[in-house]
Design brief:
Length: 248
């Protein structure tokens, strides 16, 4: 456990590694005295974190008998699911909200956030991923049902994947659809960004991987969070078996 992240179930024997890049909306005291200058209601929105994702991931990691790692800082402080050279690493405007503390942030302040939050999280994630040769990374995120001024998003769950590795994602999409779910194939976002968490810890290392996006209005309650983990765990296991049968 560090300021940057937490690990649960590190000694679990399962081959999965469940990750939550945007688990909390915490702003450390040393960043603007614990405030980015936006209203509490904005800090509670999806722009600051992925509501419900951590709780789903806790249940899922337990069901898969595998470790869980999550970041403990708001994506608005610094986004661990971006490359260090990505222009959206420290967001200045997100879904209609200006982030005052980030508008004119000097390079030394970005460097401090990288050193104290971003890099320790990725160092810990890399260490966990390397604990066994056949690690499979499952990243859990959540998305808002509707961005401001945009049409509603119909998907219950999205599966994001890169053309560099679709081994697990494609059978997972098929299995989720067979279960009667409305599934986004690279929706509500397309693929992955160079330097993001999956790119860094899975695609660049050849590890099987998948990024799951859950619509956050479906995982507001504890029962909804547990239910989604209960749905996902056996489908993930079956999809991994199908992926490895194809590539065997």
């Amino acid at each position: 456990m560090t300021e940057a992240c937490h690990i649960h179930g590190e000694t679990r024997p399962g081959r999965w590694l469940v990750t939550v890049d945007h688990a909390t909306n915490r702003v450390p005291d040393w960043v603007g005295g614990g405030s980015l200058g936006i209203a509490p209601e904005d800090m509670a929105r999806h722009i600051a974190w992925d509501p419900g994702a951590l709780e789903v991931a806790r249940h899922l990691a337990e069901a898969l008998d595998s470790p869980l790692i999550w970041s403990d800082f708001s994506r608005l402080v610094i986004d661990p699911n971006r490359g260090e050279d990505d222009p959206t690493l420290v967001m200045q405007l997100y879904d209609g909200t200006i982030i005052p503390a980030n508008r004119h942030i000097p390079p030394p302040a970005v460097a401090e956030r990288l050193a104290r939050l971003y890099r320790p999280y990725h160092d810990a994630l890399a260490r966990l991923a390397a604990r066994r040769a056949d690690t499979v990374i499952c990243a859990i995120h959540s998305f808002t049902p509707c961005l401001r001024g945009r049409p509603p998003r119909p998907w219950q769950v999205g599966v994001l994947h890169s053309p560099r590795d679709t081994r697990l994602a494609l059978p997972l999409i098929a299995a989720l659809r067979a279960a009667g779910l409305c599934v986004g194939d690279n929706e509500p976002y397309a693929g992955h960004l160079r330097g993001d968490s999956i790119d860094r810890h899975a695609l660049d290392t050849g590890r099987q991987n998948v990024l799951i996006e859950l619509r956050n209005d479906l995982i507001v309650t504890e029962s909804g969070q547990a239910q989604w983990a209960e749905v996902l765990a056996p489908i993930l296991r079956a999809s991994l078996a199908a992926a490895e049968t194809v590539t065997a």
